[in-house]
Design goal:
single chain, 167 residues, three-stranded antiparallel sheet, binds 2-acetamido-2-deoxy-beta-D-glucopyranose, bacteriolytic enzyme, mainly alpha, Lysozyme-like_dom_sf, Lysozyme
């Protein structure tokens, strides 16, 4: 009996036990990844987390295998995974010419492990914040950045209100 109790306590991490909502769970994962980077270039961590989670809700709806589309100029981007990352900028589908900034296969962004999606997203954002207008391929990278951090519905919200239920 004692062994069973110990097993239950050890085998049950915070996320599984308390059933965090997808919103709060993603906030935690992003927060941990940003902390791990120890990188001040991203600015206010909570603000970035809120912008990203708000964007995810509006686009993939927290679906890690979502595939979307967006017309950008004369081309059509295919968008992969929970963060809807572009086949022209972030990853490669093997056929479409892509900057492939994260050196990833687009289908790798569709599995349920989003830690690589998060690393790729943060790297891309940090690159642009650091290099600004000097970032290579500004037009495409800037468009991806704008889509993620400047959703009309997400600009005005207060991070502390947005995450109020997350504790
Ligand atoms: C997701 O977006 C919808 C529509 O804008 C909104 O009603 C809902 O509160 C949002 N949910 C989260 C978790 O942000
Ligand atoms: C997630 O997206 C995939 C691909 O578009 C779709 O097949 C699947 O039904 C979606 N899952 C949910 C829970 O909406």
């Amino acid at each position: 009996m004692k062994e069973l109790l110990v097993f239950l306590l050890v085998g049950c991490g915070l996320a599984q036990c308390t059933k965090l909502s997808p919103k709060c769970q993603l906030k935690e994962q992003l927060g941990e990844a940003i902390d791990k980077l120890g990188n001040k270039d991203l600015g206010d961590s909570l603000d970035i987390q809120a912008k990203i989670v708000c964007y995810v809700n509006l686009t993939s709806g927290f679906n890690t295998s979502a595939v979307g589309e967006k017309k950008v100029g004369s081309s059509t981007w295919k968008l992969y995974g929970i963060f809807q990352l572009s086949d022209h900028v972030i990853c490669s589908d093997g056929e479409t010419p892509s900057l492939n900034k994260c050196s990833k296969s687009c289908t790798d962004l569709l599995d349920s492990d989003i830690s690589d999606d998060i690393d790729c997203l943060l790297e891309t954002l940090i690159d642009l914040i650091k290099l600004g207008f000097l970032v290579p391929h500004l037009e495409e990278v800037g468009m991806m950045y704008k889509m993620i951090l400047f959703q009309r519905e997400c600009i005005e919200m207060k991070p502390s209100d947005f995450f109020s239920e997350c504790g």
